[in-house]
Amino acid sequence: MTQIGTAIIGAGLAGLACATALRESGQSTVVFDKSRGVGGRLSTRRAEGDLRFDHGAQFVTARTHGFAALLRESEAAGQAAAWKDSGDAERIVGVPGMNAIAKHMATGLDIRLGVTVTAVERAPIGWRIDTDRGTWTCERLVVAVPAPQAKVLLAEEKPLVQEIAAVRMAPCLALMATFEEDVPVPFCTRRDPQDDLDWIALNSSKPGRDGAQTWVAHAAPDWSRKNLEETPEEIAALMLPMLCDRLGIHPTSARHVAAHRWRFARVTTALGAPFLRDGSGKLYAGGDWCLGARAENAWESGDAIARDILGLA
Ligand SMILES: Cc1cc2nc3c(=O)[nH]c(=O)nc-3n(C[C@H](O)[C@H](O)[C@H](O)COP(=O)(O)OP(=O)(O)OC[C@H]3O[C@@H](n4cnc5c(N)ncnc54)[C@H](O)[C@@H]3O)c2cc1C
């Protein structure tokens, strides 16, 4: 069993923001994530022929100085840029994929990828963390996963679980598609809350994406809920004709089609505080669900946890 200072579960923006601030203050920190890469919902799917699709968060915006500074740093490193074609210069995207912003943050951090935390339990000093790759102990634990998953991991921590129970998150089904030939482009982005496809983006219009046209579409929450348990293949088969209809083209011209199920995609009711902490100060929970539906909210939550741990709050 290996003893660590602060263990963070989740290498999304919240976990990475927390780890970055702790590392800057010299604290020993290890981040665990079940995925093969960092970024969580700030994610990029690669497909045959070097195709890349941002199937989660589409762009980020900054309202706080701290997050704006991070984006400026990422831009200076060539890992982020303004998405001017979207018609809104405030929209910043990772380059060459959304996950580049997370990769930039992850530089120099101790991150264990492909490790699923199965249970956490109070130990004589701190916490015991059971994973599918072994057991660790840590003095302090930060749980930075979506609220419904935090509730499961922290099932024994009744007061925290009660507070998390108020949070609501909506699902989102995502379609990724490319066509035999480039299609006439009616728009680079289209948001329509009344449509079953409430977001469509010409992914390849983002800066730093060369090659074939790639499209990403997101289904609205109600439609996503209704079709959530279909297989990815069935979801793709249902969503492709919807996308083609909005683009005015025929579905048979599709070359690559895939779907992704985001079970906990966007926060609809947030906690209303930057994080949760138990009485001992040895357990924190955070993520976008504390403050809102935007990626910046996740960053704010993780950064606020670190500041609290460091006594800077
Ligand atoms: C379809 C979609 C579109 C979006 N569009 C936008 C947008 O345009 N603009 C915007 O600002 N925001 C958008 N968002 C929201 C944004 O992506 C999130 O707010 C933000 O990325 C959340 O970060 P987080 O760190 O809180 O959580 P996450 O990114 O979910 O990170 C949590 C991490 O925890 C890991 N994890 C979970 N359970 C375990 C476990 N048991 N063991 C180990 N690891 C575990 C996961 O693998 C994941 O990497 C969108 C989200 C989705 C899904």
UniProtKB/TrEMBL annotation:
It holds the Pfam family NAD_binding_8. GO terms for molecular function: oxidoreductase activity. InterPro entries: Amino_oxidase, FAD/NAD-bd_sf. It comes from the Bacteria. Residues 83-310 form the Amine oxidase domain. This is Amine oxidase domain-containing protein. It comes from Aliiruegeria lutimaris.
